[in-house]
Write a structure and sequence with these properties.
This protein has two helices and no strands. It has about 50 residues and is an all-alpha fold. It is elongated and about 55 Å long.
Length: about 50
């Protein structure tokens, strides 16, 4: 397994440039939005099942 925990925005910016850093940040933001939406949907579904 690769440890990429040190790869923050500044690291990527310094090593790969602004375009790549911005692209990575954009993709991660989209993934987090999707993940959060999925989690909230699952929680809402679970709560609705408990109330019926």
């Amino acid at each position: 397994m690769l440890d990429d925990s040190f790869m923050d925005y500044d690291y990527i910016l310094q090593n790969f440039g602004a375009a790549i850093a911005d692209l990575v940040e954009e993709k991660l933001t989209k993934k987090m939005r999707t993940y959060n939406t999925t989690i909230h949907s699952q929680l809402d579904s679970h709560e609705n099942q408990q109330h019926h």
